[in-house]
Amino acid sequence: MSSVTVTDIINKKKSGKKITMLTAYDYPFARIVDEAGIDIILVGDSLGMVVQGLENTLPVTMDEMIYHTKMVSRGAQRAMVIGDMPFLSYQAGTADAVRNAGRFLKEAGASAVKIEGGSEVAEQIKAMTRSDIPVMAHIGLTPQSIHRMGGYKVQGKTEESAERLIEEALIVEDSGAFSLLLEAIPMGLAKKITEKITIPTIGIGAGPHCDGQVLVLHDVIGLFERFVPKFVKRYANIKNDVLEALTRYKAEIEDGAFPSEKESFK
Ligand code: KIV
Questions:
Q1: CATH code assigned to 6-235
Q2: Catalytic residue among 35, 183, 254, 263, which?
Q3: pLDDT in tens, 116-149
Q4: 183 classed as catalytic
Q5: pLDDT, tens only, 175-193
Q6: pLDDT band at 1 (very low <50, low <70, confident <90, very high)
Q7: pLDDT of 12-66, one tens digit each?
Q8: Residues facing 49 on adjacent strands
Q9: How far apart are CA 2 and CA 161, in angstroms?
Q10: Which terminus of the chain has fewer Cβ atoms in its 10 Å neighbourhood, N or C?
Q11: Which of 250, 223, 207 is nearest to 29 (CA)?
């Protein structure tokens, strides 16, 4: 059971302390993220792309999200675990939203859920919050809207769309969301939103003025290479390390260096 609570996250904004968040999708990485002292682990539907090898996040199912969230919850001792609501798990109405969100808490050990959208999911946010399911909202670039948006594009660049995003932020706050993820929007707009609402903002590609930051783990450690968004900072190149290790393993089997006496029984 995680020890970081929704109240801790809200209090971080009040005390001006930055909130740290990363994705993870399985037990071993959840343990490492937890050990690093990250506040929130998001089991993102980005797993469709970085773990399952899909083109986008749309095919990811609730059952798959539950499967991965269970593994992450087992590895997270301290960090708060948030389950990401996949495409079509909430769009059709409040009953769907509550039932599916509830599964993350009831079956998978999460403490909260994340949902993409603003005013169009306000009723769902209200219904989930009424059912004691804490909700992180997500506006700006929402990857489940890739077909409507025509690709992964920075949002809120015009005055009109920026005003709209400020309104959306106020609406999700009013609907009961305990925090708001801002993806791929200009940093000045993220600053305005962060100052205007009382709940914490978590940015990804939204500049330094948000109350916290999140990135996709596989981007941060260099495990996903298909494309690297501008807002990603890579802190390790795990793919190269693993490739080098496995190349040596293969070579040592082929030239007889492995196994040696040390790895053998007498
Ligand atoms: O699915 C995901 O990983 C996300 C990112 C914005 C962190 O939603």
A1: 3.20.20.60
A2: 183
A3: 999 999 999 999 999 999 999 999 999 999 999 9
A4: yes
A5: 999 999 999 999 999 999 9
A6: low
A7: 999 999 999 999 999 999 999 999 999 999 999 999 999 999 999 999 999 999 9
A8: none
A9: 38
A10: C
A11: 223
* Residue 60 Cβ contacting ligand 1 at under 6 Å: no
Q: How many CA atoms lie within 13 A of 237 on its CB side?
A: 6
Closest residue by Cα to atom 1, ligand 1, is 44
Residue 39 CB–ligand 1 contact under 6 Å: no
Three-state secondary structure readout of the chain: CCCCCHHHHHHHHHCCCCEEEEECCCHHHHHHHHHCCCCEEEECCCHHHHCCCCCCCCCCCHHHHHHHHHHHHHHCCCCEEEEECCCCCCCCCHHHHHHHHHHHHHCCCCCEEEEEECHHHHHHHHHHHHCCCCEEEEEECCHHHHHHHCCCCCCCCCHHHHHHHHHHHHHHHHHCCCEEEEECCCHHHHHHHHHHCCCCEEEECCCCCCCEEEECHHHHCCCCCCCCCCCCCCCCCHHHHHHHHHHHHHHHHHHCCCCCHHHCCC
Alpha carbons 200 and 19: distance in angstroms, whole number? 8
Q: Respond yes or no on whether the N-terminal peptide bond of residue 259 is cis (omega within 30° of 0).
A: yes
Domain spans, the chain: 6-235, 237-266
Question: Does the C-beta of 205 come closer than 6 Å to ligand 1?
Answer: no
Residue of minimum CA distance from atom 3 in ligand 1: 44
